[in-house]
Hints:
Belongs to the glycosyl hydrolase 27 family. By secondary structure, this protein is of the alpha+beta class. The two termini are 23 Å apart. The chain binds 2-acetamido-2-deoxy-beta-D-glucopyranose (7 copies). One 2-acetamido-2-deoxy-beta-D-glucopyranose binds at residues 83, 85, 87.
Amino acid sequence: MLLNKLSLALLPFGTNAAILKPRLDDGVAGTPPMGWNTYNHYSCSPNEKIVRSNAKALVDLGLKKLGYRYVTTDCGWTVANRLANGSLTWNETLFPSGFPALGEYIHGLGLLFGVYEDAGIKTCTTGIEQAGSLDHEEQDAATFMSWNVDSLKYDNCYSDETTGYPNTNYAPSISPRLRYANMTKALAAQSRKVLFQICEWGLDFPALWAPSLGHTWRIGNDIIPAWRSIFRTLNQAVPQTSFAGRGQWPDLDMLEVGNNVFTTPEEQTHFSMWAILKSPLVIGAALKDDLTQISGASLSVLSNKDVIAFNQDSLGQSASLRRRWTEQAYEVWSGPLSGGRTVVALINWANEARDLTLNLPDVGLQTAGTAKDIWKGKTVSNVKTSYSSSVEAHGVMLLELRDTTPAGVYPSSKFGIRNGNTITFNSIYANTTSTNHTVSIVFSSAATTTGSLQLQSSSDTKSISIPVGKSAKSVSSPLSLVAGSLNEITIQSTTSIDSIRIESPSSTYYPCTSFTLSGSAALAKCGTGFCLPVGSKIGYIDGKSTARASVHATVSTLGTTNATSKYLEVDFINNDIALATSWGFGSNTRNMTITLNGGDPVRLEVPLTGRHSELFGPGLGWWDSSTMGIVVDGWKNGDNEVIIGNVAAGNVFQSYGADFVGLRLYN
Ligand SMILES: *[C@@H]1O[C@H](CO)[C@@H](O)[C@H](O)[C@H]1NC(C)=O
Ligand SMILES: *[C@@H]1O[C@H](CO)[C@@H](O)[C@H](O)[C@H]1NC(C)=O
Ligand SMILES: *[C@@H]1O[C@H](CO)[C@@H](O)[C@H](O)[C@H]1NC(C)=O
Ligand SMILES: *[C@@H]1O[C@H](CO)[C@@H](O)[C@H](O)[C@H]1NC(C)=O
Ligand SMILES: *[C@@H]1O[C@H](CO)[C@@H](O)[C@H](O)[C@H]1NC(C)=O
Ligand SMILES: *[C@@H]1O[C@H](CO)[C@@H](O)[C@H](O)[C@H]1NC(C)=O
Ligand SMILES: *[C@@H]1O[C@H](CO)[C@@H](O)[C@H](O)[C@H]1NC(C)=O
């Protein structure tokens, strides 16, 4: 039996044009805010000494100079009872000098003063009850203003009236939006602008409404001091990356760098991803207090100027997930930077260091004049098609690419090796094995001679004629190429060749409605304009091998090689959001397996796709589809049986697999 190989690309998420919703267009947060916050290290037990010594450390350690400016005291600073006149006040045991004095101290260091409150009747707390701002928005905003506050992080505990104000309710019957809007209004009535950080844990898909109310919004539940929460958070970020933009930043939560919970490669991955997804960068470690200080290794992660510059880049566009290889345990994200540059991150999810290869076509590129490997601290020139490097366990290959060219175009000057009338191009990439790729040969000047030229790839030979009596600028031919980046093309021609271009073959679409179902799998119709491009989906694919959807696909383009990898794209849906499960093993993913011709199932673990509210939106976000590209081995010319399932391999967290909309097979 052939060993199935699988890779996965994510397409519609990759569109770079930000979907800019009306936003708080007040000039605050032109780039993602950076700072320090008490919570990740000190929980809800801050005090004046802690905040002062960490604020001072921001300056002393050079972090202020790098852009970390907001110093925020999180939960635990206030008390249960308001003053007689209704104003909020601080806990005098913890903050004997008072909040206004704390603000003065912070401002005196050239930093900004951040406070925390809650859109409920009490703040989140791990200890004593403390007053929330619900129904006191105007007075609290005025109080903060009188203390010269610069930012407000606004939490969501004890906020749901209809269920009697429990600590958390992840499925309230009323959107949190109106409570946040009341604080927006109260802050807007003040004389100075305040950075407003919406922290309602991603309920009701805030990407659609938070930009008009605040400058940042939390995309999901809290980060926890465990490596698995990085994967969980990234899977939730996937359908939201296009919402990032000037003045509106998706908040992946505060950093755990420096809290001695991650290895250095893990800290590099965490920091790199938060930076390129344009999250606020808020340090959550003890920089310096009476007991501890941050390690040199963690400080150097937080101080990396290139990574900070990616986050603060003037273009303000987030990177997006481009391709995921589930079984090979790595994935690729990329995004545009100002100056025509591109940032790419390849994450090694495996528990060991490995050599990994980035194929530039996976991020839409063919060459890069230079690639700066950020964490390796080296720059290489003239990168063609691929870049390989060792990547630590849970580490990241983070690259800044300059002077790039788009995928599919191979200039002779870069790729061609001449020998008389023969020119050989190597490092030719194809994402599928097919006899039906189109190769276009572009001449340096119009070929006026007539005749034929010889075209040869590792798996094919073609003779192409230049049309008689015409001057041809280019000629095209189908050509066989094998999936991967190792194809070589040789051309014999008396006319000088400028470049060659490669196009993928055409595709055939197999909608879910054409699949045969068994077991618990069930077809459902979606609302008009949803479950694109089919309008229906197959759900309830449970972990038993009997629940599945199958179809027969005819293939005729494998040619005579023994290569059997074909590229296909799966349209799927997952809106299984990890809320209560985020403290444990919730990952925001679902599995899908593809079994070809009775071979071993290959597994994709797909991220969230929902781009509407899980509480009130159409289909509760379960009608929003996305696409991933995968390469599956084991195809044959003639009839092939494809089974979409969710064949359990080991312990599964969620027994239902991703919903399936359809698949597109590249001929
Ligand atoms: C202030 O904080 C201290 C230490 O956590 C606590 O013991 C005390 O009860 C708090 N005071 C009030 C009024 O909440
Ligand atoms: C309430 O009382 C405190 C303490 O005296 C004072 O600082 C604050 O300005 C008062 N607030 C209002 C709204 O009068
Ligand atoms: C918002 O404020 C208005 C006016 O104070 C109040 O009537 C309304 O109940 C508030 N809405 C929420 C959801 O708190
Ligand atoms: C693979 O080929 C298809 C068809 O041209 C294209 O749409 C897709 O972007 C390619 N994917 C990758 C990862 O190169
Ligand atoms: C067939 O596969 C083997 C092993 O992967 C390889 O060495 C050989 O070159 C292949 N033959 C052709 C015709 O591609
Ligand atoms: C997906 O499958 C893998 C391997 O069996 C499993 O570890 C993981 O928990 C599954 N994911 C979910 C969301 O069930
Ligand atoms: C191969 O490509 C040609 C030209 O695009 C197309 O007409 C033909 O249908 C393709 N063959 C297959 C099997 O897809």
